[in-house]
Write a structure and sequence with these properties.
- The chain has about 350 residues and is mainly alpha-helical.
- It has two domains: about 5-195 and about 305-335, Rossmann fold; about 210-305, Tyrosyl-Transfer RNA Synthetase (Orthogonal Bundle), CATH 1.10.240.10.
- The protein is built from 13 helices and five strands.
- The protein has helices at about 25-40, 50-55, 60-75, 95-105, 110-115, 115-120, 130-145, 160-175, 220-230, 250-265, 265-275, 280-305, 310-335, and strands spanning about 15, 45-50, 85-90, 150-155, 185.
- The mean pLDDT is about 95.
- The chain binds adenosine-5'-tetraphosphate.
- Adenosine-5'-tetraphosphate (AQP) binds near residues 18, 21, 24 and 158.
């Protein structure tokens, strides 16, 4: 098997977010905050609104258009600078879908059936789920590999999909006897790689959760953020002074993780400061911190959304830049596969 190490390829970061609703604190701490940090570390970064992924479950067309622009505003307001990173909308770069078709022929049905996200989202109603939802990971592999991306910053929930991306790359390389696609590495870093629901510490905070109280939206105002944190589910005990005291306390751990991620500290560092405090004291501290960090983002998002011409211009330019990379990689893929006229 040809396992081409990532180091044979130019280091390149790729990641995406679905415009399937408003952005959450989970998307911010698990993804967006890392995206801008990686860009500021001077890496080549490519970021994308994955609208083709979003439509694997029903999206109202007008809402999808709005959510895509709002997501673009969220990227920029969170620090992704279109002068430094390539920022665009997935459907504007057709090579993603074209490579996904090739990967549909490489990936195996059994691989897809094992995906936790497929099982969670299709649930007991798999017969009625879209074919696109089933094939979602093959499109995600194409999103990444159409750039020969070597690193993908994601939250913990996406780790399995990156492993599948590596399986697709390895099988393609093996079947065609080439070293063409890299073995991409997931980058899952920070204290909040899995931000949990504020109402249920066993569930991921998600933009499509029916309960708005379960999440903090990047567009929430200061009062709403404070209220949601005040009402967040917790237990009656005081905070421990070490991380191991948070075992079996998922809600408490979640709030401490969020605090740690906002302040770029480890959980132990946070607990050295707040250990012994009751939630009645800790929650207002967390609420103040969340408001201080998120308010500038929501203000900037509102400013950008006031006139979407600028966002549309940024996305059009990003798509053109992206295609400078994707067109030659897809052409070469077609040649390897034996497709004539590529
Ligand atoms: N709760 C979370 N904690 C940490 N990271 C998270 N991410 C999402 N939720 C959390 C990360 O955000 C990036 C973009 O995710 P996505 O929108 O493409 O899809 P998702 O993971 O399915 O996010 P949602 O909010 O749960 O969307 P819906 O509800 O539409 O399915 C990824 O890097 C993800 O890890």
């Amino acid at each position: 098997m040809t396992d081409a190490p990532a180091s044979q390829f130019t280091p390149r970061v790729f990641s995406g977010i679905q415009p399937s609703g408003g952005l959450t604190l989970g998307n911010y701490l698990g993804a967006l905050k890392r995206f801008s940090e990686m860009q500021d570390e001077g890496r080549e970064c490519i970021y994308c609104m994955v609208d083709l992924h979003a439509i694997t479950v029903w999206q109202d067309p007008d809402k999808l258009r709005h959510n895509t622009r709002e997501l673009a505003a969220g990227f920029i307001a969170s620090g992704v600078d279109p002068e430094k990173s390539i920022l665009f909308n997935q459907s504007a770069v057709p090579e993603h879908a074209q490579l996904a078709w090739i990967f549909n022929t490489v990936a195996r049905m059994g691989w897809m059936q094992r995906m936790t996200q497929w099982k969670d989202k299709a649930g007991k109603n798999a017969e009625k789920a879209s074919l696109g939802l089933f094939a979602y990971p093959a499109l995600m592999a194409a999103d990444i590999l159409v750039y020969h991306a070597t690193h993908v910053p994601v939250g913990e929930d996406q780790k399995q999909h990156i492993e599948l991306t590596r399986d697709v790359a390895a099988k393609f390389n093996h079947d065609y006897g080439v070293d063409f696609f890299p073995m991409t590495e997931p980058v899952i870093e920070g204290a909040a790689t899995r931000v949990m629901s504020l109402r249920d510490g066993s569930k991921k905070m998600s933009k499509s959760d029916p309960s708005d109280a379960s999440r903090i939206n990047l567009t929430d105002d200061a009062d709403t953020i404070a209220k949601k944190i005040r009402k967040a589910k917790t237990d009656p005990d005081a905070l421990p002074s070490e991380a191991k005291g948070l075992e079996d306390r998922p809600e408490a751990r979640n709030l401490v993780n969020i605090y740690a991620a906002f302040t770029n500290q480890s959980v132990d560092q946070v607990l050295a400061e707040v250990g012994g405090k009751q939630f009645g004291e800790f929650k207002p501290m967390l609420a103040d911190l969340a408001v201080a960090k998120l308010s500038p983002i929501s203000t900037e998002m509102a400013r950008l959304l006031n006139d979407t011409t600028e966002i549309d211009r940024v996305l059009a330019r990003g798509a053109a830049q992206a295609r400078e990379i994707t067109v030659p990689i897809l052409k070469k893929t077609y040649e390897i596969v034996g497709l004539v006229g590529a």
